[in-house]
Design a protein that fits this description.
This protein is of the alpha+beta class. It is built from three helices and eleven strands, in the order H-E-E-E-E-E-E-H-E-E-E-E-E-H. The strands form two sheets. Strands 1, 4, 5, 7, 10 and 11 form a six-stranded antiparallel β-sheet that branches. It has a five-stranded mixed β-sheet with strand order 2-8-9-6-3, with no helix packed on it. It is flat, with a radius of gyration of 27 Å.
């Protein structure tokens, strides 16, 4: 019975594993309340002159995005795009201190496939020093080697390149644990507890310390 239970738990872990995993990730942990003096925060009103996709506290997962990384303007060192953060000013209001301490950070995270080699960077941009309006600034530098569309043409330009990526905003518990990882953590704890309760005693009884039977001495 313990062996069957252990097998069932192993299958549970395999089934619960995600079927598709993004190969690369870059994240920015944002402490709440937001401190304008942080090294990841800059003040620039220019990006706020146009609208951007919205990331709303506490959780947002946007549809897949695409950003062209080559060619760039002659003066640009990287490709840039922005995402607007909303709900930060009232994120922790009304919560008791233990809950506010646990939810005192959020994580902005980019995931992209390894088939689009890119160096990403994330930072915050505020419209004013008070940081009431906040954007997440995304910078991307493509690291793929440009390939000409026709090798025989000496003056042909390589094809334009872009990167696909996903954008997620979620609570980061105690500034270290993304909320989306809690189910996997709980599952690991359940499997570990079941192993301690059933598998370890079974292995110790049947494999490590088998019963020893001693023959009786015949003295008669």
């Amino acid at each position: 019975m313990p062996a069957a239970l252990l097998t069932a738990l192993m299958w549970m872990v395999l089934v619960c594993m995600p079927l598709r995993v993004q190969a690369n990730a870059e994240k920015l942990v944002i402490r709440l309340p937001l401190q304008p003096s942080s090294s990841d925060v800059s003040v620039d009103a220019a990006p706020f002159e146009q609208s951007w996709p919205v990331l709303r506290w506490p959780y947002t997962a946007l549809p897949p995005q695409r950003l062209q990384t080559w060619p760039l303007a002659s003066t640009a060192a990287a490709a840039f795009t922005y995402f607007e953060l909303r709900g930060l000013e009232t994120a922790l209001s009304g919560w008791p201190w233990p809950v506010a301490a646990a939810l005192g950070a959020i994580e902005a995270r980019i995931n992209w496939p390894a088939s689009d080699p890119t160096d990403f960077g994330l930072s915050l941009v505020c419209a004013t020093p008070q940081c009431r309006d906040v954007l997440v600034k995304i910078s991307a530098v493509g690291t793929r080697v440009p390939v000409p569309t026709a090798a025989s043409a000496a003056d042909v330009q390589p094809a334009a390149q872009s990167v696909r990526f996903g954008m997620v905003l979620e609570p980061c518990l105690f500034g270290a644990v993304p909320a989306s990882t809690l189910p996997a953590i709980l599952l690991a704890l359940v499997v570990a507890a079941a192993g301690v309760r059933f598998a370890v005693p079974w292995v110790h009884t049947h494999l490590i310390a088998p019963p020893i039977t001693a023959g009786r001495d015949k003295t008669d």
